[in-house]
Structures are given as structure tokens and as C-alpha cells.
């Protein structure tokens, strides 16, 4: 339940203050509800994510000469594939939550505002284009798993609740009051450490002049 704060004012302005507070609370409730609904839709989209989720029609593929391994076709045949996908076209097929994550990935080209994928491992240009498309789907899937959290089950909520109760209501003991060194180790170190009285006594004993013992009684 969101808190409702109404400022004190004159009798004539109390009604307007209440209306402003109600509008503020209703706007906060609508924003929270919209965020939960958007997250639920993103979870459903991720659960149904597959090979047909992203259409190939939004991908722009170009070919160039490959410089990698490939035998006699290297630098002679346009087998290298470069795929570009504009974010404006991609937003209609993916949740809005993962767009910032895709913009921060290594495949994003800021000047053209698109994702760029390249492949030249195969000799065939069509196979390299298919490799670019697989990398596009993998990048989208990884971004979605990073941003969209899984739904918490009732058992996990109950387990977290029990742990919270145990931690907050635990009695204060030396173990949780001073974590790290146990009291027994502290006492042992204190006993080993020489006090000022012991140091003075040891110094006086070393500087004390002992009387000579004559050989004759």
C-alpha cells in the first residue's frame, strides 16, 4: 500500500490538496502496474523464443571477399557475409527491456544504430549468412536472459521469508556481534602480549648488578 501524504492547508485549499495527492498516488500505482505487466509479457516472449521469432526479412546481408582460410576461393569469391539489423526494425519483435542491453553489446554500431554480425568461416556465402543469423539470435537470447528475471516460486518466497525472520530475530551473541576472531583467540593473544609491568620488570632484572662472590668465605 503506497503512503498517502496530504499537506495541511487552509479549509478552502484542502480539497485541491487531496485531489493532487490522489493523482500522485494513482500515477505511481499505474507505473508499477505497467512495469509488472511489461515484465510478465517479456517472460512469456522469452519462453516462446525460437527460430521463427526474428524474421529474416529485417536483416540486411551483404557479401565481400573473405580473407580467412578457405583454399583457392580466398580473395577471389565473395563468401564473407555481413548482416546488419536496425534497432528500429528489431523493436517490433523483441521486448523493449532488452534494447539497452543490445546497445551496450559488442555487435552494436552506434553510427548506424544497428547490430552488425560477420562470418567468413565457411567457403559458401549462404552458410556464412546463416551463421550471422544464428549469432543474432544468440545475442538476443543472452540479452533477454540477462535482463528478464525468472518468476519467483511460492516455495522460494517462503524460504526467503523464513531466513529473513531468523536473521532479524536472532539473539545477539559474541559470534554474530564480532564476526571473525573468536573470543578464545582474543584472550589467548592478550595473555601472550607482554604488559607494561612485565616489560619494566624484565628490564630492571637485566640491568640489576649482581654482587660478586669471593672465593674465600
UniProtKB/TrEMBL annotation:
Pfam families: RF-1. Residues 186-202 have a biased composition (Basic residues). One of its GO terms (biological process) is mitochondrial translational termination. GO terms for molecular function: peptidyl-tRNA hydrolase activity; translation release factor activity, codon nonspecific. Gene3D superfamilies: 3.30.160.20. Residues 171-217 are annotated as: Disordered. Residues 53-160 form the Prokaryotic-type class I peptide chain release factors domain. GO terms for cellular component: mitochondrial large ribosomal subunit. InterPro entries: Mito_Release_Factor_mL62, Pep_chain_release_fac_I. PANTHER family: LARGE RIBOSOMAL SUBUNIT PROTEIN ML62, PEPTIDE CHAIN RELEASE FACTOR. This is Prokaryotic-type class I peptide chain release factors domain-containing protein. The lineage of its organism: Eukaryota, Fungi, Dikarya, Ascomycota, Pezizomycotina.
Amino acid at each position: 500500500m503506497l503512503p498517502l501524504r496530504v499537506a495541511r492547508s487552509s479549509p478552502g485549499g484542502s480539497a485541491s490538496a487531496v485531489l493532487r495527492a490522489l493523482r500522485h498516488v494513482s500515477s505511481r500505482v499505474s507505473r508499477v502496474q505497467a512495469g509488472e505487466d511489461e515484465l510478465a509479457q517479456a517472460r512469456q516472449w522469452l519462453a516462446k523464443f525460437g527460430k521463427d521469432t526474428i524474421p529474416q526479412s529485417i536483416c540486411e546481408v551483404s557479401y565481400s571477399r573473405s580473407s580467412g582460410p578457405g583454399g583457392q576461393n580466398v580473395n577471389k569469391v565473395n563468401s564473407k557475409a555481413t548482416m546488419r539489423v536496425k534497432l528500429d526494425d528489431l523493436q517490433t519483435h523483441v521486448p523493449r527491456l532488452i534494447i539497452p542491453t543490445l546497445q551496450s553489446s559488442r555487435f552494436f554500431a552506434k553510427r548506424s544504430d544497428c547490430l552488425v554480425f560477420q562470418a567468413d568461416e565457411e567457403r559458401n556465402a549462404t552458410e556464412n549468412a546463416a551463421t550471422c543469423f544464428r549469432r543474432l539470435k544468440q545475442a538476443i537470447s543472452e540479452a533477454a536472459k540477462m535482463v528478464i528475471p525468472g518468476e519467483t516460486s511460492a516455495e522460494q518466497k517462503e524460504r526467503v521469508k523464513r531466513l529473513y525472520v531468523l536473521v532479524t530475530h536472532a539473539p545477539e551473541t559474541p559470534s554474530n556481534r564480532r564476526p571473525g576472531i573468536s573470543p578464545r583467540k582474543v584472550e589467548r593473544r592478550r595473555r601472550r602480549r607482554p604488559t607494561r609491568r612485565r616489560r619494566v620488570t624484565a628490564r630492571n632484572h637485566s640491568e640489576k648488578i649482581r654482587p660478586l662472590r669471593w672465593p674465600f668465605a
